[in-house]
Write a structure and sequence with these properties.
There is one protein chain. This protein has a single domain, classed as 434 Repressor (Amino-terminal Domain). With about 90 residues, the chain is mainly α. About 50% of the residues lie in helices and about 0% in strands. α2 packs across α3. It is globular. The chain is built from 5 helices and no strands.
Length: about 90
C-alpha cells in the first residue's frame, strides 16, 4: 500500500520530514503509515496531489510515473544532472 510509495520516495533521497512537509502531514503520522497504518482517502489524496501522481500510484496499484521529479533537489550552485544522458 502506501508504505511502498513512501519507500520509493525515500529511495529518491526524501526523508520522512521532507515527505511530511510536502504533504502537510506530521512526520509521526508518516512514520505510522510507513509502519502499516492504513491511510484514509484524504491522506491518499494529499500524497497524490503533493507528488503529482494518481491515487492508484500512491496505493501501489500502478507504478509511479512522475517520481523522477520528486527527488531531493541538488544543492544551490551545483548543476542539476541530466537524467537523459544515460
Amino acid at each position: 500500500m502506501i508504505k511502498t510509495f513512501i519507500e520509493k520516495l525515500k529511495a529518491r533521497g526524501l526523508t520522512q520530514n521532507e515527505i511530511a512537509e510536502k504533504t502537510g502531514l506530521k512526520q509521526s503520522f508518516i512514520s505510522q503509515l510507513y509502519n502499516g497504518k492504513k491511510p484514509s482517502l484524504d491522506t491518499v489524496l494529499k500524497f497524490a496531489e503533493a507528488f503529482n501522481v494518481t491515487t492508484d500510484e500512491v496505493l501501489g496499484r500502478k507504478d509511479p510515473q512522475n517520481l523522477e521529479q520528486t527527488s531531493k533537489p541538488t544543492k544551490p550552485g551545483k548543476p542539476k544532472p541530466n537524467s537523459y544522458l544515460g
